[in-house]
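Please check the following.

. . .
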Amino acid sequence: MKPCIICVAITGSLPRKADNPAVPITVAEQVESTHEAFEAGATILHAHVRNDDETPSSDPEKFGRLMEGVRKHCPGMIIQFSTGGRSGAGKTRGGMLPLRPDMASLSVGSNNFPTRVYENPPDLVDWLASEMLAHDIKPEIECFDLSHIHQAAAMQRDGRLKAPAYVQFVMGVKNAMPADRDVFDYYIRTVERLLPGSEWCAAGIGPHQLTINEWSVAAGGHARTGLEDNVRLDRTALAPSNAALVRRVVEICNRNQRPVASTAQARSLLGLQERKS
């Protein structure tokens, strides 16, 4: 059985209030939470950073300190920076890419979020993709819609993305794609048809996280978990820590006789060399 790569999304924009004591905000807290998740079995860190007032940030200095801390305390862990719209607008979303993380998220199309449009205009998508190529960063293609898989395939065909792709299905966002099993299965077939040789992962939002984790592991894909996704509609967390959520995925892997990928196995599956600096 193919080893399952576990990605932990540690913070996102989840506010830290009385109901969310485990949400890591400062860089030091993020490194500590990542280390606990790493010890539990996570091999990819999906990272956002925060300003001093706890709002999402695009500050490359904070991303740099987070990367330094994770490399020190979590040897070999794959570092994936978010270029999502929470941390800025326009090219500020990719301002940390010259730091050369192993991976970065890339949304190749727009869609509705609960209260706004998540805008990913073609010129910005092309610029982010070109920056990732220039800095030898592997994109994680975040697919909120079937059209995003088709767009990623087109970008790979014309050289804007390097093969093989790593595709993540995002399901359960309000006003976007729900957690629908028929759609999930069709996503897998579409990736296999249009992006042969690619690896895929899936993320479920809020109460759908466990369901999507179970579907992904059973279907031979990889799994994303973490407090960024594990939220109720009132923006309070559904779990006590990132490590607890990683351990839950490990249990799902054990039930499905899927070994949990080591850092070396994850890097081999994704074609990543470990970076020392």
About this structure: The first strand starts at residue 6 and ends at 9. The CA atoms of residues 192 and 198 lie 7 Å apart. The helical segments are 27-40, 60-73, 122-134, 146-157, 181-194, 209-219, 242-255, 263-270. The longest helix spans residues 27-40.
